[in-house]
Amino acid sequence: RSAAGPAPDPVLARAQGIGSWATRTAGLVRAVAIVTVVGAASAIGYGYYQQRREQQASAGLAEAVANQKGRIGEAPADDEDAPKVKDPLPVFKTAAERRDAALQRYREVAKAYPGTGPGILARLAEASILLDKGEGNEALAAYKDVRGSALAAADLTVRGRALEGQGFAHELLAKANPAELDGALTSFKELTGLDVAGFRELGEYHQARVYEAKGDKDKAKELLKSVHERVTKAGERNVFPFLGQASEDRLRALDPQALPPKAAMPRGGGPQQYSPEQLQKLLEMMKQGQPPGGGQ
Question: Smaller CB count within 10 Å for the chain: N or C?
Answer without folding.
Answer: N
